[in-house]
Structures are given as C-alpha cells and as structure tokens.
Amino acid sequence: MYNHFQLAKKYLRYFLTASNGKGHGVHSPFVFDFITHVLNDTKQYDCYASIEDQRKKLTADFSTIEVEDFGAGSSLIKTNQRKVKDIANSSLKPAKYAQLLFRMVQYYQPINILELGTSLGITSAYLSVGSKDARLYTCEGASSIAAIAQQTFDALRLKNIEIIRGDFAKTLPQLLTTIQTVYFVFIDGNHRKAPTLQYFQQLLSHSSNATIFVFDDIHWSAEMESAWTDIQQDPAVTLTIDLFFIGLVFINPDFKVKQHFIIRF
Ligand SMILES: C[S@@+](CC[C@H](N)C(=O)[O-])C[C@H]1O[C@@H](n2cnc3c(N)ncnc32)[C@H](O)[C@@H]1O
Description:
The protein has 265 residues and is of the alpha/beta class. It has 10 helices and 10 strands. The protein is globular.
C-alpha cells in the first residue's frame, strides 16, 4: 500500500492530467453520454439522505465486534476486536463514489448486480436503490460485519439484496454457477493483484457485452496499479475509465477501438 505522501502525489498527477470532466475533447459518444448523464448528474436523489443517515449512525456506533480479518489477503488471517465506528470510517466508499455507483445502476439498469466486499452495507444500499428491479448479490467474509449490513438493509427496507457469506475464493465460483451472467460488478475487497485478476477472469466468463465492472482503489498500491494495467490490456476489454479511486471497465465489442480515459471526478 502506498503511503499518504505517495498517494497524494499520484492524485495530484491524476488531477492535473485527467480530462476536465466536462466531456470536451472526449472522442467517444458513449463516454460523453456517461459524463453528461451520470458522472456530472448533481441532482440530490431522495435516497442520498436516508442512506447517509444510516452511515452517520454507524460512524457514531462505539460497540465492539469480533471481526474475522481478511485483510488485503484472500484467506482468513486472524480475528480482531473492532469498533463499528472505526470500520464505518475506514472501510466504506465515501458518499461521492457510492452515489456515482447509484447513478450508474440507475442509468444502465443491469439485470443483476454483484458486489465483492459488503462491509456494513452502505454502498450495497445505494446499488440496491439505484436498480430496484435488479437482484443484488453482495459477498462478505466477516460474519459479524455481514450481520450489521443486514441490519442496514432492514432499516432501509431493502428487499432485493442477498448477502453471500464466506471467503470470495469459495463463494464466488459457487454463486456464478447459479446466476450464470453478471451485468454489473463492484469489486471492493481483497485488494491484491493475483486475487483481483482471478476474480476478473472468473467474472469475465460469466459476463455479457453489456456487463460493467467497477474496480475499487486501482491506485492504492503498486500491486493494484499492476492489476489495473493487466485488466486494461485484457483482450476482452474495450474501454476503461480511470476516476483515480475507482476504475470502470467495459467489454462491449461495439467499441471497436480499445480506448482508455482518465477523467477528473
Ligand atoms: C472495503 S470493504 C467493502 C466496502 C463496501 N463495498 C462499501 O463501500 O460500503 C471490503 C470488505 O471485503 C471483505 N473481504 C475482504 N477480502 C475478502 C475475502 N477474501 N472474502 C470475503 N470477504 C472479504 C472484508 O471483510 C471487508 O468487509
């Protein structure tokens, strides 16, 4: 993992070199449409307040839970005592990015959604509300964390979510035998190169032309940057958008020339 200084330097370089986020000079109608209708949609949707209310409750929750720690590794390392508020403050995608994912599923309306890494369920809630007709499968290894996520979903009365408990290494292949094709995937757990690429390959063989992949923390470490480069170079990938803290991947063969965009967000 890069230290704060290294990450800040990388972010500054991204900020100065990225397209300005208004869509000028972006020679892809699809990306232009994404920028204007999704990325820059500043409407305050009703669900933002209710989900952020849940986040606020979690960040004020001093109770301690026993957590199986999957770390950045794939298998269970150890158990830890952790305060819910510390998990809420350190592990969840900030509102800006979770709300972007909400707008993406709202705009593209995938048939189903898969999230690797539920944590306390805040981003899952955004995904669930954004595409109410879609079934959302969200995978979490730590059972005490998954239990709190379920409470989040109950409090928000979200019915289209299924939590899949266990190590991704076991649960992902099992899940893919039942859902066959995934349409929107958010990979936000186990930030190491080999497992990230392995999940991507497993998911690719269960995808359609319309499938959208979102990878979290693509610049978090040298390993994740290397995984991101490999993903961009994969022959199936036709378009990528680097928003620094997340990377979007499209595999639609209609985008005839492979293109990579870096867009300020
Ligand atoms: C960064 S958090 C997810 C945050 C969530 N997507 C959000 O934005 O609200 C990653 C979660 O993935 C889980 N995790 C990491 N590696 C895992 C693995 N190999 N199998 C199962 N769960 C894992 C961790 O327990 C942690 O709760």
